[in-house]
Amino acid sequence: MMRRSPSLLRRILLPRADGRRSVTYMPRPGDGSPRIVTLIPGDGIGPLVTGAVQQIMEAMHAPVFFETFEVHGDMPAFPPEVIESIRRNKVCLKGGLFTPVGGGVSSLNMHLRKELDLYASLVHCCNHPGLPTRHENVDIVVIRENTEGEYSGLEHEVVPGVVESLKVITKFCSERIAQYAFEYAYLNNRKKVTAVHKANIMKLADGLFLESCREVATKYPGIKYNEIIVDNCCMQLVSKPEQFDVMVTPNLYGNLVANTAAGIAGGSGVMPGGNVGKEHAVFEQGATAGNVGNQKLVEQKKANPVALLLSSAMMLRHLRFPSFADRLETAVKRVIAEGERRTKDLGGSSTTQEVVDAVIAKLDWVSHR
C-alpha cells in the first residue's frame, strides 16, 4: 500500500491560504492498491481524448489499468458486459457518446446513470490562470441530481399530436443530493450552498426539492444556505458569477447551469466532471461535449483533451492516489498558463498530441520541483 509522507498529507489536508482545500473529495473505494478502471472511448473525439489520458497515465506510471469496451451512442442499450465491468471495477472513465436527437432513441448516458444509480453529477467550473475570460474569481461547483426530474425520460403520446412528459421529484432523491452537496461543501471548506429551483411555478415538485434542501441545511450551521429561482440564476451567472460557490439543483436545471458556468469560466473543453453513486463513479468531460460529433476535429486530430485530463485527476483522487492527481493537475494547468500549446477552442492551433506531449514534459517539471 502506498504511504503518504507527512509533508504530502499536510499539503493535501490543510486549507489553502484562501481557506479552501486544493483537493476535491468524493466517496472513494479501495485501499490505495493498483486499480482496474473501465474505459469507454466513446464516439467522435472520444477515442482521441481518452487516448490522451492513457498516454499520460502511462508516462506518470500511475497504478491504474484500463479495461476497454467499444460503446456507441446509437446502440439500443449498454452491452451487459460493460455494465458488469463497471460494477466490478467500481470506476469508469468515459469519452462522449453521441445521443441522437428525436427518433425515439434513448440516451445511453441516461441509461448508465439509472442503471448504476449515479445520483450526483459534479462539475467544477473555475478560471484557469493564463486563460482569459470575461469574469475573474469564478470557482463554482455545480452538483446536480442525476436520476429523476425531466431527464427520467417518462414521456408518451397520449393521442396523435399530444405528448405527455412527466417530471418526477421524490423526497428521497432530493434529500440525498442535498446531503451530498452540503457534505461536499463541508469537506472542501466551501462557505455557501445555493439551491436552484422554480418553486414559484412548480410549487409541489420544486417545492419538495427546496423543503429537502432546507432540512439538510439545518445540519450544517457553519455553511451559508440560500435559494435562487433558475431564471434569475442564469442572469446572475452571466453578470456576477463570483457570488456562487456550491450550487445544488434538480436534474434539468443542473445541466443548464453547469454549461452556463462552464462557458463563463473558459468553455466546456477545460471543465472536469464526475457522476457518482453510492458504489460506482463515472468520470467524463464535465460540461456538455457538444463537439463529440465534430468530424473535422477528428480528421485533424485537434480535440481538446484538457477536460478529460482534469476529470481523470478527479478520478485519481477518488481512487486514493492524491499525489498522482496533484502531479497531473499541476502539469495540465501549467500548460494552460504558458499558452504555447492550446487547441483551437482555447485560441490556439495545436493538435491533441501536441497538448499531450506538452503535459508529459511538464510532468517531469512537476516531479523535480
From TrEMBL:
One of its GO terms (cellular component) is mitochondrion. Residues 36-359 form the Isopropylmalate dehydrogenase-like domain. One of its GO terms (molecular function) is isocitrate dehydrogenase (NAD+) activity. Pfam families: Iso_dh. GO terms for biological process: isocitrate metabolic process; tricarboxylic acid cycle. Keywords: Magnesium, Manganese, Metal-binding, Mitochondrion, NAD, Oxidoreductase, Transit peptide, Tricarboxylic acid cycle. Signal peptide: none annotated. It comes from the Eukaryota. It is found in: Mitochondrion. The keyword Metal-binding applies. PANTHER family: DECARBOXYLATING DEHYDROGENASES-ISOCITRATE, ISOPROPYLMALATE, TARTRATE, ISOCITRATE DEHYDROGENASE [NAD] SUBUNIT BETA, MITOCHONDRIAL. Belongs to the isocitrate and isopropylmalate dehydrogenases family. Performs an essential role in the oxidative function of the citric acid cycle. This is Isopropylmalate dehydrogenase-like domain-containing protein. It comes from Zingiber officinale.
